[in-house]
Write a structure and sequence with these properties.
By secondary structure, this protein is of the alpha+beta class. Among the domains are: 102 residues, DnaJ domain (Helix Hairpins); 113 residues, Urease metallochaperone UreE, N-terminal domain (HSP40/DNAj peptide-binding domain). A hairpin with a 2-residue loop joins strand 4 and strand 5. The structure holds zinc ion (2 copies).
Length: 383
């Protein structure tokens, strides 16, 4: 099927002004709205045609080329991607995205008072990352911190437009607002970001002095952050909209707090369980008794040490571990006994221990088993 003339598609004559073209385009786009055309199987194709025609004719450079060469102006053999905005031209855009384009245009015109395609260039601000180091005690109880975040915020002087006095930016003359320029390189046409406008499609005639035309300024924000109980190293907390300001009316990015919980000098954390190594004297481990152990909430617990406890013996304190992040219980604390060999003995202590040693040949449960095995090992070597 031969391609229809773009002016015929829009139903205007060749001398139509930009304003008339836009009106005709809006009228056609509304007629072809999917809500009104559930019975019309050709609406999609017609809409694409209208979109393609307007996309070409609204651009002064393309319009001039079309007026001179007709459809041949755009049939450079490059096919896909030929033409302006990504997916807006060239016929390979899918229906849905083409439609969202046109309604973005319409919507933008209605509410933005003729900002044209400025709205479609709106860019979301970047997400920011903030590394926060907290203590294990803070991770246990939760905490509130005030942080200072240097970030790009909307320039108040120009309301984020980048233009002195808040004047509207104008279409970039280099790329006619497309944000991209095409250059022939041998057999290929390469598309690159427009050097004049940096891809935004717009330039500012009188750049705002405060932000030098960028529309954003670096400011330090002071934010109060709630750190819930149970966080651990690697937990991310998202503060929606607290990242960098968007460009040209785009939404702000988010701020992510990356939590890092410092090592504790007494407790070792394993998920919800807290481990604590508690030294006990040789005599107390043998005789039995009590030790006092610290708990992460700042309190203390008395723990019974059974007589004859060996080094490495574990005892569980229920509910004295870490809380689960989103509710749902509390871990335990595991105490591990470390039986200590005394050092720097006095003469008297040495004598007592020597006497004790003479009397205690049968009192070391691990030793007797061990030396039986050793004897068997040596006998085996001889055999
Ligand atoms: Zn440009
Ligand atoms: Zn400014």
């Amino acid at each position: 099927m031969a391609k229809r003339d773009f002016y015929d598609v829009l139903g205007v004559d060749r001398n139509a002004s930009a304003e008339e073209l836009k009106k005709a385009y809006r009228r056609k786009a509304k007629e072809l709205h999917p809500d009104r055309n559930s019975e019309n199987p050709d609406a999609e194709a017609q809409f694409k045609e209208v979109n393609e025609a307007y996309d070409a004719l609204k651009d002064p450079d393309k319009k001039a080329a079309y007026d001179r060469y007709g459809h041949a102006a755009f049939d450079g053999g490059m096919g896909a991607g030929q033409g302006g905005r990504p997916g807006g031209f060239g016929g390979n855009a899918d229906f849905a995205s083409a439609f969202s384009d046109v309604f973005e245009d319409l919507f933008g015109d209605f509410v933005g008072g003729g900002r044209g395609n400025a709205r479609s260039r709106a860019t979301r601000g970047s997400d920011l990352r903030y590394n926060m180091r907290i203590s294990l005690e803070e991770a246990y109880s939760g905490t509130r911190r005030t942080i200072r975040v240097p970030r790009l915020s909307e320039c108040e002087s120009c309301s984020g437009t980048g233009a002195e006095g808040g004047a509207e930016p104008v279409t970039c003359p280099t790329c006619s607002g497309m944000g991209k320029v095409r250059a022939q390189q041998g057999f290929f046409t390469v598309e690159r970001t427009c050097p004049t406008c940096g891809g935004s499609g717009q330039i500012v005639k009188n750049p705002c002095k405060v932000c030098t035309g960028s529309g954003r300024v670096e400011k330090e924000a002071s934010l109060s952050v709630n750190i819930p109980a149970g966080v651990e190293t690697g937990t991310r907390i998202r503060l929606s909209g607290e990242g960098e300001a968007g460009l040209r009316g785009g939404p702000s990015g988010d701020l992510y707090i990356f939590v890092n919980v410092a090592e504790h000098q007494i407790f070792k954390r394993d998920d919800l369980t807290l481990h604590c190594r508690v030294p006990v004297s040789m005599a107390r481990a043998a005789l039995g008794g009590e030790v006092e152990v610290p708990t992460i909430d700042g309190g203390r617990s008395r723990v019974k040490v059974p007589a004859g406890s060996q080094s490495g013996r574990q005892m569980r304190l229920r509910g004295k571990g870490m809380p689960a992040l989103r509710g749902g219980g509390q871990g335990d604390m595991l105490i591990e006994l470390a039986v200590e060999t005394p050092v720097n003995l006095t003469q008297r202590q040495k004598e007592l221990l020597q006497e004790f040693e003479k009397l205690s040949a049968e009192n070391n449960p691990e030793s007797s088993g061990f030396f039986d095995k050793v004897k068997g090992f040596w006998d085996g070597m001889k055999g």
